[in-house]
Write a structure and sequence with these properties.
Length: about 400
């Protein structure tokens, strides 16, 4: 198993606050990370999807009160929402006895539910972290093609071969369609949900058009909007907002859509290997989504991400607003001879960023103009990570 970049951050948070809430999609490695931590710290681990562990909490207050001298890890904590006010009470009780941090690590795969429950009961007591699939800094730049093809879910990326990885992702999608989405109240037939996801895979990096999606699915716009919200809640979908810049030009107002894991995109489209991916019409959008997702994983705290597009054609794939007021403009080109578009140069005149990059799948960094650098993804991640760690 690869070392997760979040591990030292998680351990530092547990030394600072009473409760850490760790969210992220299923099968991303939350439990593995928690069990490694439990072994080192002799913590108590309880899986709330297990009937045996649920039974241990039948008298939750008595049981957890006896564990106040150790870290308690509660996996899939949203299954027992009544624990949140009890945890608040136990934290306050232990604080009065002099203990300040490291009481509970709460894991959950449904972001808004866990965050809402924790926010209502644990205000001022909890810190929040998200564990995402593997990114290029965790796997190493030498594995970029494999990470792009298979995506970053650990069992998919680490599979013995591309076919085993593809089968794992098929099973993963089936679990979400048959279990996770219905658990959040989804009532659409499984085949309709699959059609929606497949349409989103074809539209990777395109502007959101709810009316078009609804029309093609035979649904109303409100229903489609609700399911897009649900897919975001389950960490499958990202809506990248447009930059609301005061440049005196008519701007595009719709967000861009990305399925967050490139391997899931390829599975929905039946792409099994790199040769098939490079020949597929979605190759450009898929690579753009892969680059965007990797960069956003290393966005410094307080940073924001947008895209920029005017109705006249000025466009930047990704605009990063960094702490300290710095602006980076990033264009993505799936070409070994990248050439920024005229619209990109027009956007640079509008935005006047401190730095402008074209990410391409090569190995060298070199200037394209006096204002624009061509750079491999790994090099830009390293530069962004340096800012993040300051």
């Amino acid at each position: 198993m690869l070392l997760r970049r979040l591990q030292p951050i998680l351990e530092a948070r547990l030394a600072q606050v009473p409760v850490v809430v760790l969210t992220g999609p299923r099968q991303v490695g939350k439990t593995t990370l928690a069990l490694q931590l439990a072994e080192r710290r002799e913590a108590l681990y309880l899986d709330l999807e297990s009937e045996r562990d649920q039974a241990r909490l039948s008298s939750a207050e008595l049981y957890l009160e006896a564990q106040l001298d150790r870290l308690v890890i509660l996996d899939e904590v949203h299954r027992m929402p009544g624990l949140f006010p009890l945890i608040r009470s136990l934290v306050d009780r232990a604080r009065r006895q002099g203990r300040k941090a490291g009481f509970y690590l709460l894991l959950g795969s449904i972001s808004p539910e866990v965050t809402r429950q924790a926010g209502e009961s644990l205000a001022g007591r909890a810190s929040y972290l998200e564990l995402a699939p593997f990114d290029l800094q965790e796997t190493g730049s030498g594995h970029e093609a494999t990470l792009w093809l298979r995506g970053g879910f650990p069992e998919s990326f680490l599979a013995a071969d591309d076919e085993a990885s593809f089968r794992w992702r098929q099973d993963f999608l089936r679990t979400y369609l048959e279990r996770e989405i219905p658990l959040l109240g989804g009532r659409l037939p499984i085949e309709t949900l699959r059609r929606l996801l497949t349409m989103l895979a074809h539209l990777q990096g395109e502007l959101l058009n709810v009316s078009s999606l609804a029309r093609n699915l035979g649904l109303n716009g409100r229903t489609v909007g609700n399911y897009l919200d649900l897919l975001s809640d389950l960490y499958l979908l990202r809506r990248l907002p447009p930059l609301e810049a005061n440049v005196g030009k008519r701007l595009i107002r719709s967000p861009k859509l990305f399925l967050r894991d490139s391997g899931i995109v390829h599975t929905l489209l039946g792409i099994r290997d790199l040769e098939g991916l490079l020949a597929h019409p979605v190759v450009g959008g898929s690579y753009e989504g892969f680059v965007v997702e990797n960069l956003l994983r290393l966005l410094p705290e307080g940073g924001e991400a947008f895209f920029y597009r005017t109705r006249a054609g000025a466009e930047v794939d990704l605009v990063l607003l960094l702490p300290g007021g710095k602006v980076w403009a990033v264009e993505v080109k799936r070409s070994l001879a990248p050439k920024p578009s005229r619209g990109f140069h027009e956007a640079l005149r509008d935005l006047r960023p401190e730095a402008a990059y074209v990410v391409y799948p090569g190995e060298e960094t070199f200037p394209l103009t006096d204002r624009v650098m061509a750079t491999p993804l790994g090099s830009l991640l390293q530069a962004l990570g340096t800012l993040r760690n300051r």
